[in-house]
Every structure is written in structure tokens, then in C-alpha cells.
């Protein structure tokens, strides 16, 4: 299974929790694990709270740690080294338990797709593994 996502900014966090929950329901998996992974080297999957100030804080932290055009080697062939480096820090997947047909997430936990070199059309894989 997968999700198609059209992003609208160079860098942004998109809450994909409800789409993942829908795929878990459609799969009829009752117990197991759900792996959400991105297929791209300039995007990430993270879990955190969906609060607008915090979303800005996360993006500002990334921009502070990895400023654009800071003499990166990859910029010699493809002018997006900073996006790759941000993706390295955030990681490419998250694994979430499924119990009683539902994702096991804490009250404030949401699943985000992080666009780091947008806007683009992107694809996220959703893999469900059921155990008896
Ligand atoms: Zn590149």
C-alpha cells in the first residue's frame, strides 16, 4: 500500500496520521506492526505533536542546524545537499504497533511526512505485518 502526497512548500510537515489510520482499517489487520516509510532521499517520516508552534520550531531547528548553500559537496552536482542532510537527521521510516485494528499512538503523537525539498509529488509506503 502507499500514499501519494503533493507538497506545497520547500520545507513543511504534513500530518498523515488519518490517511495511515484509514489504510490500517482497510487492511483489516487486527494485531501486528505498521511501517510507514518514504521512498525519497529528501523527505522523512517522523512522529511528534501537531501543534503549529512546535511544527515551526522543528523546521527552524533544521534550518539552523543545516543552513542552505554552506559549501556542501553534493551541491556541485545537485543543488539540494541541505535537504538530504535534513533527511539523514530525521530518518526515513517509523514503525507503529497495531492492536485491536488500531495504531498504538500516544495522545499527542501524530505521524508526519517531512518535505525537505519541495514542492513535489511524493510517495509514502505503508506496510502492515499481521501476527496471529
Ligand atoms: Zn540531491
Summarize the structure in words:
With 132 residues, this protein is of the alpha+beta class. It has one domain: Jelly Rolls (Sandwich), CATH 2.60.120. The protein has three helices and eight strands; from the N terminus they run E-E-H-E-E-H-H-E-E-E-E. A five-stranded antiparallel beta sheet has the order 1-8-3-5-6, with helices on one face. A three-stranded antiparallel beta sheet has the order 2-7-4. The two termini are 21 Å apart. The relative contact order is 0.38. The model has no long low-confidence stretch (mean pLDDT 97).
CATH homolog superfamily: YjbQ-like
Helix count equals: 3
| CATH level-two architecture | Sandwich
- Give the overall average pLDDT: 97
Structural class designation: alpha+beta
Task: Please mark out the parts with pLDDT under 50 across 5 or more consecutive residues, or reply none.
Answer: none
Label the overall shape. elongated
Q: How large a portion of the residues is in β-strands, by DSSP E?
A: 35-45%
Helix content: 25-40%
Q: How large is the radius of gyration?
A: 16 Å
What's the CATH C level?
A: Mainly Beta
Total strands: 8
Distance between the termini: 21 Å
Distinct small molecules bound, one entry per kind = zinc ion
- String of helices and strands: EEHEEHHEEEE
SSE blueprint:
Elements: E1 2-6, E2 12-15, H1 17-27, E3 32-38, E4 43-48, H2 52-65, H3 81-90, E5 93-99, E6 102-103, E7 110-115, E8 121-130
Antiparallel strand pairs: 1-8, 2-7, 3-5, 3-8, 4-7, 5-6
The structure holds zinc ion.
Amino acid at each position: 500500500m502507499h500514499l501519494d502526497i503533493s507538497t506545497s512548500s520547500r520545507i513543511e510537515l504534513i500530518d498523515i496520521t488519518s490517511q495511515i489510520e484509514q489504510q490500517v482499517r482497510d487492511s483489516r489487520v487486527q494485531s501486528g506492526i505498521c511501517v510507514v516509510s518514504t521512498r525519497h532521499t529528501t523527505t522523512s517520516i517522523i512522529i511528534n505533536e501537531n501543534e503549529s508552534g512546535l511544527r515551526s520550531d522543528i523546521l527552524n531547528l533544521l534550518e539552523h542546524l543545516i543552513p542552505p548553500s554552506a559549501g556542501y559537496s553534493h551541491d556541485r552536482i545537485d543543488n539540494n545537499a541541505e535537504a538530504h542532510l535534513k533527511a539523514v537527521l530525521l530518518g526515513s521510516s517509523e514503525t507503529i504497533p497495531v492492536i485491536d485494528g488500531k495504531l498504538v499512538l500516544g495522545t499527542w503523537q501524530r505521524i508526519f511526512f517531512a518535505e525537505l525539498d519541495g514542492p513535489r509529488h511524493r510517495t509514502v509506503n505503508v506496510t502492515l505485518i499481521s501476527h496471529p
